[in-house]
Amino acid sequence: MATDPLNLLWLQSGGCGGCTLSLLNAEAPQLFDRLADAGIRLLWHPSLSVETGPEVLDILRACAEGRERLDILCVEGAIMTGPNGTGRFHMLSGTGQPMMAWVKNLAAHARHVLAIGSCAAWGGISASGPNPGGAVGLQYDGNLAGGLLGQAFRAGGGLPVVNVAGCPTHPGWVLDTLLALGLGRFAADDLDALHRPRLYADHLVHHGCPRNEFYEFKASAHRPSDQGCMMENMGCKGTQAHADCNTRLWNGSGSCLRGGYACIACTEPRFEEPGHPFAETPKVAGIPIGLPSDMPKAWFVALAALSKSATPKRVRENAVADHDVITPTIRKTGLK
């Protein structure tokens, strides 16, 4: 028996709109066909819908008043609570009310609430520095539970805010989460401890990294153009960051590490304030502070010493070059 489509409303708050731009890179089938296949109807999106002015306000008021069913509320960008908790730094045009108030009201009527990107999840880049705008996430303020809606918030379907974190978030993370919700196959067990979808958060950026051979031998890059592992000197946090960026590639072919830039752990709370330059690795007694998330320090030190002593010349010299200067030796494997 046919069922009514799920109504999805998308709002943009304090942010750059980069998560929407990322979403537009979703691969075939194209975005709107994918949503339709999942039984999801886009009520309104500020960048992708044709309704403007009074038409938009009619949609928002219908959802806020319960006259239009709101199944999925997606919020992109941090919630601006300043000045002094009034939210008046971000007013929703034509309503006389801050976006903060609209989000609270709509979330109370929504069956599911999704924070799209790290700004909506934790505050993100919008909350960096002294944060004069009072930017917070929907249910987190940095790594502290709370945010706009409070730690105890649960949407109508029983779930907390689903934090599809990333800066920007991968289109596949958004669509897979929406598809699972549309099919009724997304439950509390599908969220990790920070309420991120486990479909991507149960992985590490390190998985599938094209520099893994250099990591194994602790053959490190020293300059941005070097091919070696960027953990020891260049600030890479791929062994600690929860995401599948190197197995679920961007645009089918890319990732930060494939583009020559270290992972800055953009899916994690407070990534925007690491306490050191993004492209530098802080160390104590020559040992990186940010070790792999599930490896004891003593084990790492012992492994690193052993690995470096066994590094082949090819790996060692290629690590500090911008192209392969030594190719693998041609040798019979002995296999038949």
Return the string of H and E elements.
EHHEHEEEEHEHEEEEHHHEEHH
Write down how many β-strands occur, each being a DSSP E stretch of 2 or more residues: 13
Mean pLDDT across residues:
93
- CATH class group of the largest domain: Alpha Beta
N-to-C CA distance: 57 Å
- Integer tally of domains: 2
Give the strand order of the largest sheet, numbering strands 1, 2, ... along the chain: 2-1-3-7-11
The CATH architecture classification of the largest domain is 3-Layer(aba) Sandwich
| Quaternary structure annotation | single chain
Structural class: alpha/beta
Report the sheet-strand fraction. Answer: 5-15%
Q: How many individual helices?
A: 10
The major sheet is characterized as: 5 strands, parallel
Q: Based on Cα principal axes, name the global outline.
A: elongated
CATH topology of the largest domain: Rossmann fold
The proportion of residues forming helix, as a percent range, comes to 10-25%
